[in-house]
């Protein structure tokens, strides 16, 4: 089996074919998109949070199999995750791909299936799109919450 066979394995294909939460939210607190100029992949996400915990998530995934698989795993685990948890899993993924670190563990352990991507630097960006978009949306929500114009009575 070649490294390329490891990347496009049956589990990747299964995840890419079954992406949950594929509808955009009607009234998200934040929306963000991430785009790979190299391959043209785009992942757009909508996010709702109460305090720092995700309560609503929607996405549009127009990406390669790797971006689709990462988005599928995100959608399976994002509801109930905290902002810090999501930033941490993104950091672990970047470390895994760019510096050879270990894959995420716990409820995010399915991301291990993307470990062989580290050998293909050109595929890192598309694999990380969903993490970039989610972190952008979290930053928007945090900025809104800390803004002097933020409505303290607004239900989050």
Please describe what this structure looks like.
The longest helix has 23 residues, at 124-146. The protein starts with a helix and ends in a 10-residue tail after the last helix. Strands 1-2-3 form a three-stranded antiparallel sheet. Helices cover 42% and strands 16% of the residues. The protein has five helices and three strands. Helix 2 (10-17) packs across helix 3 (65-77). It has helices at 3-7, 10-17, 65-77, 83-99, 124-146, and strands spanning 30-35, 42-50, 53-62. With 156 residues, the chain is of the alpha+beta class. The mean pLDDT is 92.
Report the structural category. Answer: alpha+beta
Biggest sheet features: 3 strands, antiparallel
Cα(first) to Cα(last) distance is 49 Å
**What is the multimeric organization of the chains shown?**
single chain
Coarse morphology? globular
Mean pLDDT across every amino acid position? 92
Please count the helical segments: 5
Task: List how many beta strands DSSP finds.
Answer: 3
Could you list the spans in which at least 5 consecutive residues all have pLDDT below 50? none
Strand percent estimate: 15-25%
Q: Work out the helicity level.
A: 40-55%
Largest sheet: spatial strand order: 1-2-3
Instruction: Please write the string of helix (H) and strand (E) elements.
Output: HHEEEHHH
Radius of gyration: 16 Å
